[in-house]
Amino acid sequence: MEDKAFPVSWDAFHRDARALAWRLAAVGGFSAIVAVTRGGLVPAGIVARELGIRVIDTIGVASYEEETRRGDVRVLKPLSETILTLPSEEVLIVDDLVDTGATAKVVRALLPKAHFATVYAKPQGRPLVDTFITEVSQDTWIYFPWDTGLTFQAPIAKGAP
Ligand SMILES: O=P(O)(O)OC[C@H]1O[C@H](OP(=O)(O)OP(=O)(O)O)[C@H](O)[C@@H]1O
Ligand SMILES: O=c1[nH]c(=O)c2nc[nH]c2[nH]1
Ligand SMILES: [Mg+2]
């Protein structure tokens, strides 16, 4: 059960996704991006813009049925022919985070030589990622800006988490 909160603003996410793009630019050699939807769509757009990549596909994977409840990993939308006919080492897979690694494992199995990049990583999933920017502890829940809004926060003295 996650007991630490790691809220991420749009600014912070953009900065971190750009930092990821800088690292990936140093790796080089990518001709296409696969965004792991839905969470990978936002960082994939930022990375694609920074690296000048216009061939972008999605793989639709769901690993959690609702918020913090874990469900089965299911492929809801497969890779397109455009990606499958490329040498897989030219493919960059982008997701927002790796947590248990269950999603990454399924996607990696489809493109074994592709480069897997995430903005955030938790220790359990970290070995499955080639490049990431920030590691948070396993008991941390990352709150992304597209899932959150501005709300009142209780003062620490009154039991804020
Ligand atoms: O390493 P894991 O334990 O598999 O968790 C990481 C995955 O979980 C989240 O996606 P989710 O399945 O919740 O769907 P979403 O991207 O549509 O929000 C996140 O975007 C990653 O893809
Ligand atoms: O918004 C999210 N934050 C997380 O920490 C997480 N882990 C798996 N899936 C997640 N989704
Ligand atoms: Mg996801």
UniProtKB/TrEMBL annotation:
Pathway where it operates: Purine metabolism; GMP biosynthesis via salvage pathway; GMP from guanine: step 1/1; Purine metabolism; XMP biosynthesis via salvage pathway; XMP from xanthine: step 1/1
GO biological process, one term: GMP salvage
Phosphoribosyltransferase domain location: 10-152
Molecular function (Gene Ontology), one example: magnesium ion binding
Keywords: Cell membrane, Glycosyltransferase, Magnesium, Membrane, Metal-binding, Purine salvage, Transferase, Transmembrane, Transmembrane helix
Entry binding sites for 5-phospho-alpha-D-ribose 1-diphosphate: R38, G39, D95, D96, L97, V98, D99, T100, G101, A102, T103
EC number: 2.4.2.22
Function: Purine salvage pathway enzyme that catalyzes the transfer of the ribosyl-5-phosphate group from 5-phospho-alpha-D-ribose 1-diphosphate (PRPP) to the N9 position of the 6-oxopurines guanine and xanthine to form the corresponding ribonucleotides GMP (guanosine 5'-monophosphate) and XMP (xanthosine 5'-monophosphate), with the release of PPi. To a lesser extent, also acts on hypoxanthine.
Complex and partners: Homotetramer.
Name of the molecule in the record: Xanthine-guanine phosphoribosyltransferase
Organism: Methylosinus sporium
